[in-house]
Amino acid sequence: MTGDAPTRTREAFWIGGHWARPLGDGAIDVVDPSTERPLGSVPAGTAADAEAAAAAARQALPRWSATPVSERLGFLERLVAGLSARADELADVLTAEVGAPVAMARRTQVGLAVALAASYLDITRDFAFERRVGNSLVLREPAGVVATITPWNVPLLLTLQKVVPALMAGCTVVHKPSELTPLHAYLLTEVIAECDLPPGVFNLVVGEGPVVGAELARTPDVDLVSLTGSTRAGRAVAAIGAERVKRIHLELGGKNAAILLDDLDDAGLESAVRACVDQMCFNTGQACLQWSRLLVPADRHDEVVEFAARCAREYRVGDPRDPATDLGPLVSAAALDRVRAAVVRAVEEGARLATGGPGRPEGLNRGYYVSPTVLGGVDPSMAVAQEEVFGPVLSVMPYDGEDEAVRIADGTPYGLHGAVWSADTAHAQRVARRLRTGQVDINGGPFNVRAPFGGYRQSGVGRECGEEGLDGFCEIKSLQLPSAPVDSVDSAGPVVPTGPRLRDAS
Q1: pLDDT digits (tens, 9 = 90+) for 155-190
Q2: Among the options 251, 388, 464, 467, which is catalytic?
Q3: Of these four, 136, 235, 307, 389, which has the most CB atoms within 10 Å of its CB?
Q4: Is 251 a catalytic residue?
């Protein structure tokens, strides 16, 4: 364990611009997944805590929503600087509570998160909050009070992915991080507290989803809920929000496919397989955008399975604080049980275990560790091909022809992420255009924080990142002006009279 107990134990929530004592007396232990020992604790929020935070955000909304964009950008500049100054501390906490290896914690858990926040400096400056359409002035205004509910896997990144554009749109925020990994959120709140944000604009409450999350979805003080999490959690929040016809953004699960086309030569195939194994192992497989299915030409299936297994065995599983570690632990005992059960069921249903498996990695007798696992001969009907495992498990699946590859890729309830690999980029793009999924990587194209991210079908509703991410926290209002320049009229059509002109027109 790193650090001492006082730095890991928190006793208050950030509500209305100050640290407020919780209204309940419960506590939630935060466990270090590499040791299975307590790391600290946080208060267990209640529905009353959620209501208090939402009320504070509601009270702060009129002032913040009227704040000039230049002032909001000033806050964001200070936030980015503050996060950068505490990057090492944030990374250490994320290694401790998530189990992210130190290099990955610094580069992605924190580095990419700060880069995403910084991207909204230019996005907000360039955003069209107003535009003329004929005799109308179309306004993009703050959606109101936003509840942001985030998971435990890449928590700082997924928090900033919501909180930053919401604040830039002029919304106020109540944030509920996962109760499994809440400690980083306290550091983030400390940074925000030093950025001269008016009281109540940002609020933090920690608690269980069915208690705090449900109340945030239920209370009339919240106008929009933005949740990243499981499809089950998304359904629950959407059902509660529907009682008030509340706006709901959902970024949910994925069962993402990487398709290797048959025009790849041996070197191209090996490069693509290695990249897919690497992506499968990212964050110990705990990522909604993980390529958990590898679709390959049937006549190359066996060699792909063998090579993927060889690649997977090269990864070192161990203490996330050791710089030599590639994969840290899963986040919890429940996560470990889920991944083990998925592998056992896959083998029972006929998949071939090429490497890994449900057992503990050698020499790791404590911690929620699992080995990178490659399964061959996976059929689209198997549970492991349909259900999100959320662990380092790769299912290699044969296909005959591109039409079948597309059908298999689209043959799950999800549609979040995918990949196509080909010797011809144009060929890969043609196949990618056929896929019903929100984002497709072409020949290993890197993640772009300014491009929209989100899914089709049960992978969610709405988009995050980029201009679309900012637009998602806006309401649209049209002001119908008395007249407009002739050249500003976008389309011809009948004029519908309103107001005092209506009687004259009749």
Answers
A1: 999 999 999 999 999 999 999 999 999 999 999 999
A2: 251
A3: 389
A4: yes
